[in-house]
Amino acid sequence: MTPQARVQAAIEILDAVIAAARTKGAPADRLFTEWFRTRRFAGSSDRRAVRAIVYDAIRACGDIPASGRAAVLRLAQDDPALAILFDGSRHAPAPIAADDPVAPAGVAPVWLEQALTASGLDGPELRALLDRAPLDIRINGLKAALAELPEPGEPTPAPFARRFPPGTPVEQWQAYLAGAIEVQDAGSQLVCAAVGAQPGEAVVDLCAGAGGKTLALAAAMDNRGTLLACDADRARLSRLPPRAERAGVTIATTRLLDGGREAAALADWAGRADAVLVDAPCSGTGTWRRNPEARWRLDERELARLTVLQARLLDVAAALVRPGGRLIHVVCSLLDAEGADQVSGFLVRHPGWRAAPLALGAGRPRGDGVRLTPYHDGTDGFFVARLERL
Ligand SMILES: C[S@@+](CC[C@H](N)C(=O)[O-])C[C@H]1O[C@@H](n2cnc3c(N)ncnc32)[C@H](O)[C@@H]1O
Question: Which residue intervals define the domain SAM-dependent MTase RsmB/NOP-type in the entry (predicted)?
């Protein structure tokens, strides 16, 4: 592809990303892959170049741009080498007109940027939400002897994490194939450590998804005890057993929950768990480094729906914890509404509980919990709090 054709491809993909953001359709990564699936003439260097333009444009525009062209023109305003490629030649975008709309720059839609600022994030912290994420792995303590890595990687605040540049092909490494390493952000590993899961304990991972944190909990438990992984999404939860097998985890069982009827499905666990992890469904404001277009999809109504669901899941989780046990609330979001405010609301609803201090070796206090941010900690953004039943 010519450099001009790459720009035109990026514009077309961005048009699809914008349409999907408006209708809550497919994520950008999938649309990118689909566009290239039908264009076999494009090589890997074309893909890399187009991908860079697409994601730079998504990162540059705070709110949904009017069009893919307006989004790329936002980049072209500060990049003459890009602007010159709008030359109207074959497969190229049309030349730039004086009245061509240019998407405004920004970190996020105005309401969301205001909510993040009100949640205590300043300018550099906000901008760092859109940095490119490194690639972190977790060394699986259950198979540590097989974790021979071709490159040592950088240490991070999470003891079992090693950091590599984005795109490092770790999934082709022998250690990965042997289940001795997992791809997992260091922040994700730190919030698992906040559970303090011990060998022999009874632990529930209430929103386990495909089990990223379940596997880390099993390793912390040295594969001894009971670990129940639940989720309301059948497809996600079904990915857990094969991952557990590869990782050598035998203590995890899965239970599919019906949204709204979780308590009944978990009646046999009432008051039994030493610890319950609620890695709650959330807005994902802490993960924009990986899917920056997610900020175009969120609106105030969706945020309100999520905060109601989070409070309900915390109440479901509380009923499972034994006296003296603990509940860990985690969101990969930096909005207080989903983090600190959820915890204060929980403590009002549940007088027999208290917030316990957390020493993660990273992060900063926020309300009754700790917040990890890309800017200060180099991890995805998380809020985590540890609540203890008296
Ligand atoms: C942040 S994700 C969990 C990620 C997962 N713990 C991991 O480490 O990969 C939140 C999960 O909550 C699940 N969820 C949504 N509603 C739920 C409900 N009512 N009960 C249990 N899980 C629910 C979603 O399907 C999603 O997998």
Answer: 102-390
